[in-house]
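Hi, here's the filled form for the chain we discussed.

Project: internal
Contact: R.S.
Residues: 517
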Amino acid sequence: MTKESRTHKSLLNAKVNLTFYLLSLLLSFFSRKVFLDHLGADFIGLTGTLGNILGFLNLAELGVGASVSYALYQPIAKGNRDEICRIVSVFGSLYRYIGGFVLAAGIIVSAFFPLMFQHTIFELGIIYFAFFSLLTSSLIGYFINYRSILLYADQKNYVVTAYFQTAILIKTLVQMALVCYTANLYLWVSIELVYSFIHATILNWKIRQTYPWLTASAAVGNRVRSQYPEIVQKTKQVFVHKMKDFLIQQSDQILIFAFVSLKMVAYYGNYILVIGRITMLFTTMIGGIGAGVGNLIAEGDKEKIQRVFGEMLFTHYVIAGIVVFAIYQGIQPFIYLWLGQEYLLSHPILILLLVNAFIMLSRGAVDTFNTACGNYHDTWSAWVEGIINISVTIFSCIQWGLAGVLIGKIASLVPIIVIWKPLFLYRTSFKRSIWHYWKTVALTWLGFAIAFGIASYSSRLLPFDPYHDFMQWTSYCVSLTAIFVLLYVITLFLFTQGAKDMTHRVINTMLKNNRMS
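And the returned structure, exactly as it came back:
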């Protein structure tokens, strides 16, 4: 695969992701308001909790998709279709076993619902119907949609995004219309299930159209699986890391349900929705580059690898800084105007949310390169991170409730994600001193602090009241964020080499495009 094709696919992924982001942004907030008003915060909290329970059952999958994608890079680059068919078949066979396990585990877990949900206001009928509808939607991915792994590995995930997001947009509009007229919980859940089948049908039709030569099947995968021991080895390593990531990042709503209340799950979910949508605005523009980095690593140009890593590090820190500042300034008045004062969370919880968001956003460059290099063998770090998280979370939740969940996450992220993972990348793959990395990161943090302080002070000078209406809120947020972005980018350009390299690349690309036009 050539550099041009990698760049073209990355840009196409970014364009498609950004287009659907913009389409779904307004709809997601509007639909959330409609669902909360007509279905109630308890039901939204219930579906979130059931989704997290199902996520625990899906832990069995963790690692398989990443391992198979890694195994597909070489045959895709060489155009070896027979090898691709065999590897996708292996993926299909593994997914059949995983799907069977998830189904059995789901049935077993559902037997305990009368005990788990004995204090909720809902009848067991709607709880079981919602859970098994979500479970069926999940099983479709294991038994029908497994061939889509090739689209991701081939940097054509824009195909999946286009059909998946279109189905979600239509589904949400239908749900909103029906909820406004009927407020029927069973009907709302039924729409979720029906559109899962519609999406699966359309997606598989598109896969056959894109790869007419793809003849993958689970039966073939069972026969040839022994020929790919590296997939099993990588799967075991990735599984440990992915399981840890899930437990830390996706168990929030279950812990809040257990230690606080079902209604607080919905309140917390409102903030996570806002943070997620703002984050997606930026991450969609750099999504789908994992396969491209994998090919870059395979080329072996060490200087180029370091330059690209520096540029990615700069990009992720810019994104992290912009997102955190924008959320800090705008989320409280937005929740107030959108849902009402009763849905506001406290300022200390907001700070903890933003610290966690900054770490998760800024880690992207290190994670991408570790994944592209196949650096999964530090499984001990996943166990340490998980143990720290569980220990601190249980103690903190008892003391501080919702804040304790976030304290546990941050306490586990700092020693492993912030400190160890970069060191692991430099020792294992870059094979050079990590001093330059820490110097760059320290200067980046300093630049963020300077820009954050000056821009926040500037808020006193603005003639806008963000709590008054959405017009003033928009003016307030846009003005402050523009000030912050200008200060932040200038300081990073002065302090870091990655910012200079990225600026030169952008200028050269613009000049090249002007000459071509």
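Let me know if anything looks off before we file it.
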